[in-house]
Amino acid sequence: MKNDIILAGVGGQGILSIAAAIGLAAVKNNLHIKQSEVHGMSQRGGDVQSHLRISDKPIASDLIPKGKTDLILSVEPMEGLRYLPFLSKDGWLVTNITPFNNIPDYPGLDDILKQIKLLPNHIAIDADAIAKQAGSSRSSNIVMLGAASPFIDIPFERLEDGIRQLFGKKGEELVNTNLKALKAGRDFTEKNR
Amino acid sequence: MEKLLLLGDEAIAQGAIDGGLSGIYAYPGTPSTEIMEFVQGSKQAEELNIHRTWSANEKTAMEAALGMSYAGKRSMVCFKHVGLNVAADAFVNASITGVNGGLIVVSADDPSMHSSQNEQDSRFYAKFSLIPILEPSNQQEAYEMAYYGFELSEKLNVPVMLRITTRLAHSRAGVQRSQVKKQNQLHLPSDPRQFVLLPSIARKNYKKLLGMQPAMDVESEKSTFNTFVDGTDKKLGVIAAGLAYNYLMENYVNGKNPHPTLKLCQYPLPHKQVADLYNLCDSLLILEDGAPVIEEMLKGFLNLGKPIHGRLDGTLPRDGELNPNIVAKALGMTIQEGQDIPDIVKNRPPSLCQGCGHRDVFEDLNEVLKAYGTGRVFSDIGCYTLAALPPFNSVNSCVDMGASITMAIGAADAGLIPAVSVIGDSTFTHSGMTGLLDAVNKNSPITVIISDNSTTGMTGGQTSAATGRLFEICQGIGVHPDHLKIITPLKKNHEENVRIIREELEYKGLSVLIPQRECIQTFARRKKADKNESN
Q1: Does pLDDT of B461 surpass 80?
Q2: Could you say which residues from 113 to 142 on chain A have a Cβ atom under 8 Å away from some Cβ of chain B?
Q3: Phi and psi torsions of B69, nearest 5°
Q4: CB of A171 less than 8 A from some CB of B
Q5: What is the ipTM of this complex?
């Protein structure tokens, strides 16, 4: 088993929380993991990505080679497209459709969605709206994790454990909101894939 | 012992703690910052009473670590590659004094300049100083090298450099811990003059350092971090240093690499192992992240003998970090790529946060500068450097920490009057204060704006050395009180701030303005913490 995942977004959108939840779940499942992150200057409103590799065998490189990524999980629609050179032929793009517009030349949303729809394997989801319904607009990154979960070879219950571990210190209420967000994302993909 | 999921930086911190660390000194800088942050957050470090505070700059950090080593205890100092330039005076001389307690110098290089002004390779500095380098290929080795580095340092009586790059610093993997070692007892050097670098003593110490080189070679030859694996295809042998080894192996499914390969993670170069590989193969490929340090050594000036491929002959790009694809191309493999990036995808550079006080400072300043024209703002390294980009396009220089004030002095000396310097509070205490003294002594016709957000913002909000005391420091350095002013960078003060800046630009002597407003990131974190506490 081997999953090569690129998490994409803008600095401050919470992709490292997604990485942490998957990482905790992977470790619980006794899998090997390497996860490369962007820190520092680029975090201030710039594009950020994390290469996340999970395998039942030892992993060599911290970076995923081009054309070998199984899943791009993007919390912002344009950012998902930035990493297409890394996506394998059978790979999936799972993306939020709510734009994070902090640049003057941000493209039209229709054009972005058109590009996304050209991909054979894609899930486009309004994670912000679903997160709001689940109880917290700040959980949209966890909705995205749920939406991507069918493409990650870790049992769903383990991802739930990861969420419990990640938010446990911050109280029961936040854990439950995020578990609800995770499930809502998963349900969306199950219905729409 | 338990297995932990750690960043490369965190693995170094945990390895040092478990290896008997007594004190860590550092100045924040991406990608090294998380080493100190991990030790500061560690309960174990707290229980062991390990000293762990930020220093004003890399030189003071290096010297404090050397002082702890003098007193017999194990110390570590951490910074990024350009920080080593700041610490260089102390760093190079520490190899001449030698150590008493083990001393590890962690320098985190940034090939591809993810967050830096250059991509210099710290291995040059260690080679220049004649000390060993440990270069981990993964997080486990990062842990083990920090753990073992103290011992190596004490055995060879020199500081040991632990060199990492951004990719390892900021990548996470499982790490197996070792037994926790006891800290050293306080004890003084057996030779009371060991650390006194008067010429007569320094000459003696230098000979001793040169005399230690064969012992360093022996350590590299027998190091378990350097390993040779034979292969069937002897047309090409590979030397893969540190992280580059992983990029090599990524290209061989099931780990079946046909080329005889030397994985090289401890320097000086193990002479015998390198020579054996050279004799065994028709040509060599050198894979190293950063500069062609090993390649140059093996090639020599006249480039005699068998072909040696690497960054110098174009087999690998001369700049930037390596990755599996670059290495695959160097091995003559074809790579499969996904789709191209669609044209509609636009660049998204980093920018100042919405609501950041620096924004108001540059809005005020830009309005005043309209009357004088562009090209007058000298700056240096910090969040505020982002004002070089649109929409501000305000900053005209960024060279090194502290260069804003001194470059403005030089420009004013050349006749560019007014010249403006914009520097942050942490950068000012790091290396701006001495430049300000120069400006005071000459009464340079420059305006220095110390944009004070009460933190080291760019690296995530570490303690700034002189929060709340900048006004007094400037007074103490001798800035005239009539031209030393604190302002508040807020929209509602725009007109007034513009007036003050204009007045000071027109003054034909030194002015210092201190716009003060807390970083909105640390402000938000503080409010959240207060709220959680009151709940």
Answers
A1: yes
A2: 115
A3: -65, -40
A4: no
A5: 0.89
pLDDT of residue B302: 83
Q: Does residue B1 carry a pLDDT above 70?
A: no
Q: What is the DSSP string of B288-309?
A: -SSS-HHHHHHHTTT--SS-EE
- Positive or negative, the CA dihedral B155, B156, B161, B163 is negative
Q: Which of B33, B338, B348 sits opposite A87 (nearest CB)?
A: B338
> In chain B, whose CA is at the least distance from the CA of A57?
B254
Is the Cβ of A101 closer than 8 Å to some Cβ of chain B? Answer: no
Answer for the pair B477, B444: CB distance below 8 angstroms, yes or no. Answer: no
Nearest CB to A61: which of B247, B344, B460? B247
Per-residue pLDDT tens digits for B361-382: 999 999 999 999 999 999 999 9
- pTM for the full predicted model: 0.93
Distance CA B400, CA B468 (A): 24
Taking the CA atoms of B52, B57, B59 and B63 in sequence, report the sign of the dihedral they define.
negative
Contact B348 A37 (CB under 8 A): no
Q: For chain A, state the CA radius of gyration.
A: 15
With a pLDDT cut of 70, the percent of chain B lying above it is: 99
Q: Which of B2, B164, B345 to mutate to test the interface with A (most CBs of A within 10 A)?
A: B345
Q: What is the pLDDT of residue A84?
A: 97
Instruction: From residue A104, give the alpha-carbon distance in Å to each of A15, B354, B363.
Output: 23, 15, 18
Q: Which residues of A touch B323 (CB under 8 A)?
A: 61, 63, 65
The answer for residues whose C-beta is within 8 angstroms of residue B87's C-beta and 6 or more apart is B57, B58, B59, B61, B62, B77, B79
Report whether pLDDT(B535) > 80. Answer: no
- Structure token pair of residue B25: 């000194």
| Cα gap B513→B489, rounded to integer Å | 11
Probe site for chain B from A16, A47, A52, A63 (most B CB atoms < 10 A): A63
Supply angle C-alpha B130, B145, B97, rounded to 5. 35
**Residue contact A60–B383, C-beta within 8 A:** no
